[in-house]
């Protein structure tokens, strides 16, 4: 449950960075998605419309990043940082406008949250119930990992995305429109991050508040690098993170005499240890971060 | 080239203000009123100016920290965590140590700086030894620092009863200017005659800005005038070439993160010694480190640029809440403005194109 928002967002990172555009703005895109999800969900009462609008919102923010970093050859890290400021600023700004000057949206009616497909199928609090009675966003995120993997490694489009990220010039020579592929990937990345934010504000909790996302976009970014820029790797990293967070809740519940603050550090320390020992050096797509200018070839 | 860069930056700032204004206008605020409120909120009284400078100091320093790391090829997202460690250690040393005036403050600053420097070095070490990307490790270290802070603040010998914060630091560790004196009888009497001084001293004026400027000069000196700086910059420009040229790249990375950490830690320490006098339990990242990234970027990763853009962002952040309190305009527009400014600085070619369009319209197209 804790992992789903991260998985959506990390997949967004995978999409963008495989095409060669660094996307540090995931955090901002996630934040705007969370706000739009919660706002639309509150006013329309339909979680699916809310979820889709959140994706569109994230996509629009990503479009800005795409225009800057693809068309105007901006420094992608700088532009991404700007997106983060814009995302959080716009979210709180809009929240104040839609919700009478507060930066916290009103809670969505529980019936209008994301559905739990396996609710009441298993007996209450049984093992199966605890494992499978999740919000549908959890299942969607796993499905998306599969789709993403298939798209990147089994389709022509995926091959193009990866070739544009590895060697844009060669791709261009072969007649691939580098800019168009990159625009597609970056906007897709924003849509997915928007979903990630909405998975937070429509499922995990039921409203938006300024601290809701605080850092999760960055954690998703870390998970993507951790997972070596691959969808399945990013998913595993997010799960590790979610599991560690679940462990905290579990250990906290057993009454073991460990201060909660120390427990809260565990996922982060674990990530660092795993990174040093098990993953080793990882490198992203070769042309990641480099703008591509088409010079007149012929 | 250098002049162009300055012009781009100024145009970006103007465009950022324009975007902020348009957004406010779109939701029905008069942007002239907004900007005049902000301007008055920063410049109309000496007290406001003092506050603006006080608010700018931490982000100037975190800006320097990020800029320094950037110049050496590292992206320090961890200024936030280093800031927290600096603040925490400053509060601990400021409360538990008993030393004479001045010496106490200096010891605290050095201790906090070193602690944060070591915190930054963890990321440097992981990068140098295991190849762990510093973006990931610093993000993790930010969170670990946050929870460590909360753990230490909850410690019963340190936590002020019935509060979410630590005990206040001892007066001997304060870096406030004339803070004690203004409470003495002589001070009160003197201040009642000088409105100007009274105004300024009503803000927690402290030595922070002087320390920040000294740090900026140091950073400039290290980067431009020393062998160490030359090596660090070389590693930043091309790691492989530097390795081939006999520079110990691993040690450079470690040194760079250490210095970067010191700068961010000083930001935290100054904030505690000069303004808050305590550390509190944090429920989320307060953002000085992230503001530092924006400051460094706008300042083109130079020390002087960091100081100037730190002052600009400090002014924006200080005046933001004022438009909210006086006219009910959402103060978050400040983050939108900062975002837009950074956004436009990221794409000089956009501004170039706009500029050339303007020239064309006026019929002064120059072929270069």
UniProtKB/TrEMBL annotation, chain B:
Compartments, record wording: Cell membrane
Keyword Membrane attached: yes
Sorted UniProt keywords: Cell membrane, Membrane, Transmembrane, Transmembrane helix
Alphabetical list of Pfam families matching this protein: BPD_transp_2
Chief place of localization: membrane
Any one GO CC term of the record: plasma membrane
The protein's name: ABC-type uncharacterized transport system, permease component
Taxonomic classification: Bacteria, Bacillati, Bacillota, Tissierellia, Tissierellales
